[in-house]
Backbone:
């Protein structure tokens, strides 16, 4: 029996090493070839997923944040939604009730409307509903982030845990109202553009890209290797999470390389 347990641990350590080594190598290559400094690395993450247009972004003094206002809101909102669900509904995997889905659908609709309106404003003479601004981009982006978290969190729990809780992760209007209220407070903090809070929030928003992609790719790893619903705690999830992080970093690295190949600069897109 002891020999069997020892063999299993040895096999698990071997698999962990096989997965970890290429991820570590990839991480160091990415660190070497991306802009220097913590904010430079955050810029490189944003560069892979966001247009980073200057006038559509918030700034730390003269320095543009890693993500535009809409993407900053979206990834901050997603991180906030994941954290709040983990606090209030640990391992819950149930879908929100219909009344909550209605609110989330409105958030999705507002995000789409503001995005289309903002896009149309790029073309002189094109009709649009209102003059777009960073406040609406941030607000609708944050609400969209809550939608993403509301979909991803229960899906992750349903894929991973041996004993997940079947109750909804967002159980009613009070809960979604609380989440929305906290999200609005977060937006007001961002709008203050106070460097003491804007700097860490900028890093968190860029890190949110990695977190979301890591969770999605970890779930994909479980499906490919047919190992869903076998885990009791996060210590057992080391291999899928490392693999998910590696795939997330690979996607970001490929997108970084392709965009730099086309534009020749780490700057955002320049309009006009």
Residues:
């Amino acid at each position: 029996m002891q020999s069997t347990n020892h063999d299993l641990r040895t096999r698990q350590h071997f698999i962990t090493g096989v997965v970890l080594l290429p991820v570590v190598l990839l991480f160091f290559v990415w660190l070497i070839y991306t802009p220097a400094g913590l904010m430079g690395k955050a810029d490189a993450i944003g560069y892979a997923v966001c247009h980073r247009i200057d006038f559509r972004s918030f700034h730390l003094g003269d320095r543009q944040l890693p993500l535009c206002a809409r993407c900053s809101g979206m990834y901050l909102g997603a991180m906030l939604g994941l954290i709040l669900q983990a606090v209030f509904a640990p391992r819950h995997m149930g879908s929100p009730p219909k009344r909550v889905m209605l609110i989330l659908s409105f958030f999705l609709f507002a995000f789409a409307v503001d995005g289309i309106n903002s896009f149309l404003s790029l073309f002189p003479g094109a009709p649009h509903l209102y003059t777009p601004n960073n406040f609406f981009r941030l607000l609708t982006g944050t609400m969209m982030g809550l939608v993403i978290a509301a979909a991803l969190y229960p899906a992750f729990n349903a894929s991973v845990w041996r004993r997940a809780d079947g109750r909804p992760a967002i159980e009613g209007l009070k809960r979604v109202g609380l989440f929305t209220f906290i999200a609005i407070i977060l937006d007001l903090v961002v709008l203050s553009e106070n460097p003491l809070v804007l700097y860490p929030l900028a890093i968190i928003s860029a890190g949110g890209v990695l977190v979301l992609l890591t969770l999605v790719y970890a779930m994909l790893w479980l499906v490919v290797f047919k190992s869903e619903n076998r885990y009791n705690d996060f210590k057992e999830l080391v291999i899928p999470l490392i693999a998910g992080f590696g795939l997330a970093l690979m996607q970001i690295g490929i997108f970084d390389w392709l965009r730099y190949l086309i534009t020749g600069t780490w700057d955002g897109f320049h309009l006009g």
